[in-house]
Design goal:
alpha/beta; Dihydrofolate Reductase, subunit A; 9-stranded mixed sheet; 7 helices; 9 strands; globular; binds NADPH dihydro-nicotinamide-adenine-dinucleotide phosphate; binds ligand LIKH6CAM; oxidoreductase; 2,5-diamino-6-(ribosylamino)-4(3H)-pyrimidinone 5'-phosphate reductase; Riboflavin_Biosynth_HTPR; EC 1.1.1.302
Length: about 230
């Protein structure tokens, strides 16, 4: 058993998540930020990789007071369970994700994470340990399911999203295409990592919806399971 996993990302019209400096930038507009806040608020958990924590220092909190109130009325924490994928326990103990907003956090580390760093982070978050070098995402998903997580939103970055696709762990992806060009051959893209080589390995997608949002476009894709072309 594993949660339903959906990825949400914003990219430029030329397919970049950020600049070559890998700093946090605004790609989508206000309507898209409202949409993201809503789907985040409806999710049981939200996940990012350590690359995103170090680059963006996100809090991953629900922002809209209405969305917070709806969660509270349902007896939920203000924010979904926040999860960082971080083999070496490099999450800074003063990171916003550990301090802003109420609600549980999990730092998922591998067997090689130094014990003293685990202990420091354990003051603010539960620690999942799994995987020899990198975090074992499949085992983590099973653990999250046992924890009661039915829907998991993944906010990036491209390295984590690659691993999730490689392991067949993505069910849907929302792609917001902003009206700008970023460029740079080393700028991050939605799916980085090693990349698929053979066409029959490519995850196949079905377009569920396509609409204009702000001055860009929003696509919602379903990952087609076990379909080869
Ligand atoms: N526009 C958008 O929507 C978004 C943009 N971004 C941008 O993306 C960039 C960050 O992305 P990126 O650098 O790819 O980092 P990621 O956030 O994808 O984190 C990747 C890191 O996670 C760790 N990790 C541990 N286990 C695994 C595993 N099994 N699979 C994959 N990764 C694992 C690795 O580091 P280690 O081995 O040290 O643990 C790895 O380098 C930033 O520039 C950020 O601004 C990010 C999110 C959304
Ligand atoms: N939807 C969206 N649009 C953009 O333009 C973005 N740059 C991002 N980035 C993601 O949002 C996170 C910010 O989280 P907080 O506001 O700090 O809670 C950031 O880390 C990226 O994951 N997303």
């Amino acid at each position: 058993m594993r949660p339903f996993v959906f990825v949400n990302l914003a990219m430029s019209a030329d397919g970049k998540l950020s600049t070559i400096e890998r700093r946090q930038i605004k790609i989508s507009g206000n309507d898209d930020f409202s949409r993201v806040d809503m789907i985040k608020s409806d999710a049981d958990a939200i996940m990012v990789g350590i690359g995103t924590v170090l680059a963006d220092n996100p809090s991953l909190t629900v922002k809209s007071p209405d969305n917070i109130a709806k969660r509270k009325n349902k007896g939920l924490d203000q924010n979904p369970l926040r999860i960082v994928i971080d083999s070496n326990a490099k999450t800074p103990p003063d990171a916003d994700i550990l301090h802003k907003g109420e609600g549980p956090r999990i730092i998922a580390v591998s067997d090689k994470a130094p014990q003293e760093k685990i202990e420091a982070l354990n003051e603010y978050a539960d620690i999942f340990v799994g995987g020899e070098e990198k975090v074992d995402l499949e085992t983590l998903m099973e653990a999250l399911s046992e924890y009661g997580v039915k829907t998991l939103m993944v906010e990036g970055g491209g390295t984590l999203i690659w691993s999730l696709f490689k392991s067949g762990l993505v069910d849907e992806i929302y792609t917001c295409v902003g009206n700008c060009i970023i460029g740079g051959e080393n700028a991050p893209t939605p799916v980085d990592g090693e990349g698929f080589i053979k066409e029959d390995e490519f995850p196949k997608l079905e377009l569920l919806s396509l609409k204009k949002i702000d001055d860009g476009a929003l696509m919602r894709w379903k990952v087609v399971k076990d379909k080869k072309h």
